[in-house]
Amino acid sequence: MSVKLGYIGFGEAAYHMGKGLKSEGVGDIRAFDVALDMGGAYKDTVLKRCADAGVAVAASAAEVVKSCDIVVICVPARFTASTAEGLLPFAKEGQLFVDVTTALPHVKEKEAALFAEKKAQYVDSAMLGSLVVSAHKVPMLASGDGAERWKEAMTPYGMKIALVGAGSKAGEASRIKLVRSVFMKGLEALVVETFLFARKCGVEERIMDSVAGTMDKESFKDIARRMAGADLIHSERRSFEVGESMELMKEVGVEPLVAAGAKERLARSAALGMNTELSGVAPQTMEAIYSIWEKKSYK
């Protein structure tokens, strides 16, 4: 069955996804971006992206909705609600709307209900990787009443869509994505701050080799378990150590933003008093760690 696919918003993510799907044989893809109505450099960027991807340029969002079976909402999260609600007057019974934005779960729950009133299906589909690296094959999660249909329609074109689960609701995929984002975006910020600091100190290569040597020895699961367990025992000492690092950061002209958050989190862990309760022995499983956090009402 052929797919008529439309994009509302044609930024970097939609471009890489659309270009990949075009190469897989999706013949009818069109897109609209508000930049097309604004002119300027970004309009030129959108037009160039569409041409390079082989995607038709639509004159309006309404045109996309009226001519496509599947409509992908791919706009900045702050515009998710207004964009989705602007599409509602044109939505048709049986149409599939796929929201790949990072909007909060409750926003997607509300949008799903509004589309249901139009007898259209809505999918909360979260991207769990880099579109620049993986294009349309980036791992995705899907929840909502149209999730299975989305997966069935796009898997033949190489998309990697996993379902959150039977009966899942819109917002559940985004919940997973946003929790994951704390780590992935936090790690990005930590890398930037660490190597900005290292460069100022003239030790960037030593730090790269040292950290790589430590991280490469274990799987991520083992690292996470070891660090979370050790946090309950050694956080007081480590909080002080980070404080010392922050003083040096200030001396060399680096503002300790991520480090300040790390110091605060370590201090809160230390305040639990678990080093004494556990007699200095760190728990060895994540379940044991979760149990302590819940018992202590750790926030």
Automatic annotation (TrEMBL):
Residues 198-268 form the Phosphogluconate dehydrogenase NAD-binding putative C-terminal domain. Residues 6-161 form the 6-phosphogluconate dehydrogenase NADP-binding domain. Signal peptide: none annotated. SUPFAM superfamilies: 6-phosphogluconate dehydrogenase C-terminal domain-like, NAD(P)-binding Rossmann-fold domains. One of its GO terms (molecular function) is NADP binding. This is NAD(P)-dependent oxidoreductase. It comes from Pyramidobacter porci.
